[in-house]
Amino acid sequence: MSAKSGREVAIRATSGLVYVALVLGLILVKAPYFQFGMAFFSILLARESFFLVKKWSGNQPSLWVSPMFLLLPLSSILPPNFLPFDPALGISAALLLLLSILWLSKKFKSTVLWLNLGILIQVAFWLLSRLGYHDPFPSKVIMVLFFLTWINDTLAYLAGSFFGQTKIAPSISPSKSVEGFFAGLFGSALFLYLLSKYWLNADPLPWIGFAFIYVPLAVSGDFFESYLKRKAGVKNSGNIMPGHGGAMDRFDSFIFAVPLTYMYIIKLLL
Predict the structure, then answer these.
(1) Rounded to an integer, what distance in angstroms lies between the CA atom of residue 78 and that of residue 94?
(2) Is pLDDT larger for residue 179 or for residue 120?
(3) Torsions phi, psi of 177, nearest 5?
(4) pLDDT by residue (tens digit) across 221-270?
(5) Cβ neighbourhood burial of 136 (10 Å; 0-12, 13-18, 19+)
(6) 165 FRET partner, CA 20 to 30 A, in 63, 87, 92, 214?
(7) Measuring CA to CA, which residue among 222, 224, 165, 156 is closest to residue 191?
(8) 167: phi then psi, degrees, rounded to nearest 5
(9) What's this model's pTM, rounded to 2 decimal places?
(10) Separation of alpha carbons 34 and 139, rounded Å
(11) Closest among 53, 84, 76, 80 to 66, alpha carbons compared
C-alpha cells in the first residue's frame, strides 16, 4: 500500500468512526437531541441533492424553494402531541400545491426535480424522528437499524471483493455483485437472529423476517444513489465526510428501507 492510499484509508476510517460515535451518541441521549440530529442529517442530504440535480440537469434549482426543506426537519423536532394535527398533512398539501405550480413551467424542471429528490430523502429521517418519540424510547431498535446497515454493507463488500463474479448492475454500480448481496442478506439475518435472542430478548422470527425485507430495500437505496451520481457525472455527492463519497453514501440505505419498513417496525418489532 502506498503512502497516499494508506493516508486515504486512515482519513476514511477516522471520519467513519466520528460518524458512528455521533450516531450512537444521538441515540443514547434520546429526545429531543436525537430528533435534532435527524433533522440535521436530513437538511445535509437536501443540500447534497441540490448539488446532484444541478450537475444532472445543467441548471441551478431555484433557491427560493429551499425553506420547503425545513418543514420536515422542524416538524420532526416537535413532540407528537404539540400540535392538534399531524404536521405531515400540511406539509404534503403545501408540497402538492407548490409542485403543481412549478410543473406549469419548463423553466422550473430542475427545481421540481430537486424538491422531489430532497423530500424523498428527508422522509426517512422524519420517520426515524417519529420513531424516536415512541414510548418507551426504542433506542435498541434504532441502533439495530444502523447496525444492520453497517453489517450488510461490510459483509457485501468483503464477499464481493473475494468471491464476487456475477455483477448485479455494472452500468450503475460496478462493484456490486450477486455473491456480495446474498452474503449481506444472510449475514444480516444471522446477525439479527443473534441480536434478538441475546440482546433484545425478543422472538427472533420477526427480526429474521425484517432482514429479508430491509436488506433488499437498503441495497435499492444504494443503487439509487449510485444512479444519481452517475447521471450527474460525479464521483462524490459531497465533501463533508472526508474519505467518503458524501454524507449520502452513509445514509442511502435509508431512502427506501426506512419508509417501507416503518409500519413493520411499529407493528411487529415494538
Answers:
(1) 18
(2) 179
(3) -125, 160
(4) 999 999 999 988 988 887 777 666 678 888 999 999 998 899 899 889 98
(5) exposed
(6) 214
(7) 156
(8) -80, 140
(9) 0.88
(10) 10
(11) 53
Q: Is the distance from CB of 191 to CB of 151 less than 8 angstroms?
A: yes
- Residue 38 in contact with residue 129, Cβ under 8 Å? yes
Instruction: Check residue 1 and give its pLDDT.
Output: 45
Calculate Rg over the CA atoms of the chain.
19
What are the helix (H) ranges across the chain?
3-29, 33-57, 71-77, 87-102, 109-131, 139-163, 178-198, 204-232, 247-251, 254-264
- Measured in residues, the chain has a length of 270
Instruction: Give the C-alpha distances (Å, rounded to integers) separating 20 from 75, 146, 147, 156, 207.
Output: 25, 9, 10, 19, 23
Instruction: Please provide residue 125's backbone torsions phi and psi, each rounded to the nearest 5 degrees.
Output: -75, -30
- Residue 50: CB atoms within 10 A of its CB come to 20
| Distance of alpha carbon 163 from alpha carbon 152, whole angstroms | 16
Strand partners, 167: 177
**Residue 33 CB-density burial (10 A; 0-12 exposed, 13-18 middle, 19+ buried):** middle
- Answer whether residue 217 shows pLDDT above 60: yes
Specify the amino acid at residue 24: L
How far is Cα of residue 84 from the mean position of the Cα atoms in its chain?
29
* 24 close to 89: Cβ distance less than 8 angstroms: no
How far apart are alpha carbons 8 and 167 in whole angstroms? 26
What pLDDT shows up at residue 169? 87
In angstroms, the CA 218 to CA 257 distance is: 5
User: What integer pLDDT is reported at residue 241 of this predicted model?
Assistant: 73
